[in-house]
Amino acid sequence: MPESTTPYAAERGPVPTPGQTIGPFYHFALPYEGGEHLVAPGCPGAIRLHGFVTDGNGTGIQDSMLELWQADESGQVVQQPGSLTSDPGRFTGFGRTSTWRDGGYSFTTVVPGPTSQGAAPFIAMVVFARGLLNRLFTRVYLPDDAEALANDPFLSSLAEDRRSTLIATREADGVYRFDVRLQGDGETVFLQFPRHEV
């Protein structure tokens, strides 16, 4: 019998698995009841943020999922457990929802306060969608404080024609709209963090 040999993986170390696109599994198990409500609709200070997630052709992506991470009205990043229980009396700064058939979504939340001096308040948004090799990170700035937006260090670092992709619009009924464009004209600015591969 031939002498046994060392298995390939043990000899050369772990072998990386091939890259795969994420999704489309977001309508199963990951969304949870009430996940789109960071606060209860109609409570004092509640706002509605809605929009569409679209591909390079402007078509809504129905099987994507969005997460929001944000500070409270005073700019404090809440560090309490309980987001997945959707306790309407507890603001955790986290929400999750999947998009509808037309790519639309909606969250109920609060206007965040600034987390650092000189910066405009923002809502962090994470996008998961079919065809992506990794999740995408972006920011949602509300349009109400023009001076804060003009002086924000991050927004100021972007080309002027790209800043608007991060600023929501306020509609006539007071609702905020923020569309996420994954490719093409008006593509949303996405951020890259250390150890985040795109």
Q: Architecture in CATH?
A: Sandwich
- Within CATH, the superfamily carries the name Aromatic compound dioxygenase
Here the CATH topology equals Protocatechuate 3,4-Dioxygenase, subunit A
| Number of DSSP-assigned strands | 9
Number of domains: 1
| Rg value | 20 Å
Number of helices: 4
What average pLDDT do the residues reach? Answer: 85
Query: How much strand content do the residues show?
Result: 15-25%
CATH class: Mainly Beta
- Low-pLDDT segments: none
**Fraction of residues in helices?**
under 10%
CA distance, first residue to last residue: 48 Å
The structural class is mainly beta
H/E series: HEEEEEEHHHEEE
What's the shape? globular
Oligomeric organization of the protein chains: single chain
Secondary structure topology:
Blueprint: H1 8-12, E1 46-54, E2 65-70, E3 94-98, E4 104-110, E5 122-128, E6 136-141, H2 146-151, H3 153-156, H4 160-163, E7 169-170, E8 176-177, E9 180-181
Structural commentary:
With 198 residues, the protein is mainly beta. The protein has a single domain (21-181), classed as Aromatic compound dioxygenase (Protocatechuate 3,4-Dioxygenase, subunit A), CATH 2.60.130. The chain has helices spanning 8-12, 146-151, 153-156, 160-163; strands at 46-54, 65-70, 94-98, 104-110, 122-128, 136-141, 169-170, 176-177, 180-181. The termini are far apart. It comes from Intrasporangium chromatireducens Q5-1. It holds the Pfam family Dioxygenase_C. Residues 46-184 form the Intradiol ring-cleavage dioxygenases domain.
